Amino acid sequence: MPTPYQILFRKRAGEALSEGEIRAVVAGTTDGSWSDAQLGAFLMAAVIRGLDPQETRTLTLAMLESGEQWALRDAVPTVGDKHSTGGIGDKVSLILGPLLAVCGQPVAMLTGRGLGHTGGTADKLETIPGLDQALDRQRSLALLDRVGLAVGMATEAVAPADRRLYALRDVTATVDSLPLITGSILSKKLATGTAGVVFDIKTGDGAFLPEIEEGRRLGRLLTETSTALGCPARAIITDMSQPLGRWVGHAVEVRETLQCLEGEGPDDLMEVTYTLCEAVAALVGTGVDRPALERAITSGAAREHFDRWATAQGASTAWLRDPQTPTAPEEIVLTAPHAGVLAQVANRRLGELLAEAGGGRILPGDAIDPGVALRAEARLGDDLAAGDPLARLYLRRPDDGLVARFRECFTMVPPGTAVAVPALIRERILPEAS
Q1: Residue 188 annotated as catalytic
Q2: Taking all residues of the chain, what is their mean pLDDT, rounded to a whole number?
Q3: Catalytic residue (one of 91, 188, 189, 255)
């Protein structure tokens, strides 16, 4: 068995590690025989020297095999999954799950918590009273049998090696390594044993990876690694240059989810949702198409199925009959300072400021105020008169300095100026092996 020193020396020198060496790192992560200092050194070497595709696949598989594997597709052959790299106002998972399930496409999704400028699906679902997100294999299969949908957080028995490495990456400036990101995402996604997974790779100012070329690289690495490990995958690059939908904030995003399922969703949010729904269904073979998805919305079936699923996971039936998603009491309208065209939104900065105001998490363990929110009133390319609303803020208390920084997130150009608005659906990525 190679020693930690030997492995670290070789990776520091830029050499590719063998399968045995990578498995030794993951074993040491899981059983505690590698110290935080040694693991931090490995992570830094992996960032600086890189991991090739074979190393990435081996790391992913070893992290996956460090914990439980549910093999859901053995019992539910067409179960699908979707994962987003996160953005501002991205509540697609909350809409996609019940919409696909009511159309006969089963879905199992493990959720995560937000950190920094993006909100986590798990945090948003916590605003629904009584909803129990704890999932294991038995409960997931019971929910899939009952309502075709299981959404929540896995037990600590899933990918324990990733749990430790993820925490260390956050404090060692090694978060943005594409191979490490791939291993982290897939070790959890593949642990459920889904029949296929679609990745929503965000690009633009509010994305984790703002540059589209970085998004392409991550999309290719995710799809090719997943496919090589036996799980078919596709990736779609979508725009995150402005908030997706109209509302940003934990409670209000649940409210907007319900509006979407009732046929009152904004066009951009629904287009991304429909596109990802079709991709999941096509990948696992059920072939649910756009007309069927639209009928499920207009008939009211999708909204009803949300209630069935939420009830099955313990949500308060009284809340579902009369959902309460209150905003914080201090409403501030951000207005256009002069006539012109909205040319740019500092989208990532909006998310960071909302987190600073209490509506997100700066550090793990921070409390979230679910009522802190923003409503986007103007969209990129809109012609505005002086005084027209750009956005509405909902804060817990007045803060003139914070409000001034929110205002700086919107850039106007003179009337008549042509503004290029990025396409909502940027690219589709298939693994080269396909």
Answers
A1: yes
A2: 95
A3: 188
The number of beta carbons lying within 10 Å of the beta carbon of residue 356 is 15
What is the pLDDT averaged over residues 329-358? 96
List, in order of start, the domains of the chain with CATH numbers. 4-50 (no CATH), 72-321 (3.40.1030.10), 330-413 (3.90.1170.30)
Please give the Cα distance from 40 to 220 (Å, whole number). Answer: 26
Catalytic entry in 184, 187, 226, 241: 184
| pTM assigned to the model | 0.94
162 is catalytic: yes
Catalytic residue, candidates 23, 169, 220, 234: 169
- CA dihedral 200→201→202→207, nearest 10 degrees, is 120
Name the active-site residue from 83, 124, 189, 348. Answer: 83
The fraction of the chain above a pLDDT of 90, given in percent, is 90
Q: Which residue among 81, 123, 162, 200 is the active-site one? A: 162
Based on the residue annotation, tell me whether 184 is a catalytic residue of this protein: yes
For the chain, the C-alpha Rg in angstroms (whole number) is: 22
Query: Which pLDDT band, with edges at 50, 70 and 90, does 434 fall under?
Result: very low
pLDDT at 21 over 60: yes
- Residue 367 to residues 58, 115, 356, 424, Cα–Cα distance (Å): 36, 11, 11, 33
Q: How far apart are CA 192 and CA 246, in angstroms?
A: 32
The answer to whether residue 115 scores a pLDDT higher than 80 is: no
83 is catalytic: yes
Is 375 a known active-site residue?
no
The whole-number average pLDDT for the span 28-34 is 97
> Residue 178 above 50 pLDDT?
yes
What's the pLDDT tens digit per position in 279-324? 999 999 888 999 999 999 999 999 999 999 999 999 999 999 999 9
Question: Is 155's pLDDT higher than 60?
Answer: yes
